[in-house]
Amino acid sequence: MICSGPQLREKRLQRRCAFNLGAAYVETGEPQKGLDVLSRTQPGERGERIADLQFNLATAHEALGDRTQAARHYLQAAQLYRSQGDAGAEADTCVRLAHCHLLRKEWDEAAASFQRAAESYKLAGNASAAALALKDAGKHMLQSGRSSSDDIISVLTDSLEMSVNMSDQQTLGKLLSDVALSFSQMRLFSEASECLEQALPLVSSKPHRLAVVLQNLGAVYNSLGQYQQSLRFHREAAALHGALGSRGAQGRCFSNLGFALVELGELEEAWESYLHAQQAFRDTDDPSGQWQACEGLGGIKLQMKDPDKASMYYKDALQLLCKCQDVSVSVQERLVSELSEALQQKLRIQQRGAASQRTAPERHHDRRQPRTMAVRSDVQQWRRDMQDGENAPADRKQHSQTITSSETLLQQEQEQDHHHNTLPEANRNLNNTYDKAEMNPQIVPSESSHGDVPRSVQMNGRHPLVRSTVTPPLTPPDSDQAPPLMRRLKSRFCTVM
């Protein structure tokens, strides 16, 4: 039966009203009602399926937590927008599609969606949005671990080139900071320092972001071995984090400062910095930061020929290490080795004192075996103390096995008469979050400008680099954060069906 003209117009009007009603439900926080209404608006003829309908269906599914269906509808919407020649809408939809992939931890698919979004933004003449999309694409290519370094560098470099004419200084500053983080993950510290130096004046009006950039600059210069140049950034970052109430971040800055000062031979000042760091980590109940500060204090006391206090700090570090999760075996082995070295230094000092009171023939007596046995005895006693502790973690057996397995290493080092002059790593305090006033003292993994949770960045430093967490996918206009790419994306309303 063929509908008359008035009937056809009435049917289209009903469909249009249902479409807009469904979009309104999604927009006002009732996605299930919106989905029910939108599902009934789909016309029978396949050719009448419109891109906005697919976009709204995707938005409803995403709000309901069904990311698989959301991704399917976003992909269909993006394809339809492309066929219509609407590059801007296609790009926006690809960003939302990437967000769904991120929530499902599909890093490769997310990176590909961001790259497609960047291409569409370029066609639409939106270079700033393209730069942000490329920045996120590079980050998630790095996160997946399947892309080549050359490909990642190419994407990040394109992002920087596209950002040259970016008018929003705050957004540009955050982009530079995020690209610097990606470069630092690839151990391209010179490139990272250049980006951070450019970001520094751009974020000067935002104290939290300024503190992060200062902290990261100091950390990167530590990694480059440019310790004298890093001091100013460590000190300024520590002071600013303290003024903002970011106690944990302040502790990480003091820890970095302590390391740099040790490298420069300023042991007394380094000692004070590590004490400040230790107290800050205690205040924020951060055992990870505490054991690292204790390791630094132990290293300084070892250089000062005070093996008793060095041993005390190394034992404290090992105790605190047991409260931390996901600690590598190499860290435990290193601390046990350092404890052994402190005990050996103590024995050498005692033996030299005793030798000065003995006759010449006695000085040639071989005392290696007693020294080995004494060190082993002290380390074994420490292990027994650890095993008898009241608050032993569930994985204590694994820790004990790790320490026991290092006994061969301890024996191999018995003949070494020198001690470490520096900590084994250049800097563990690279920061990957713009810290607000310590709502959570732990390091918070970053969200990109489009929303995601990447892996922590472990460099040759005490903590990962800080990346902004103050820019979720959709933020209120009065936020002090950089305007997100997707702020204007909501439900789409239909005027013509």
From TrEMBL:
Compositionally skewed regions (Basic and acidic residues) per UniProt: 381-398
Top-level taxon in the UniProt lineage: Eukaryota
Location of the region described as Disordered in the Swiss-Prot/TrEMBL record: 349-403, 465-484
Protein name (record): Tetratricopeptide repeat protein 24
Organism: Cyprinus carpio (Common carp)
Gene: LOC109081665
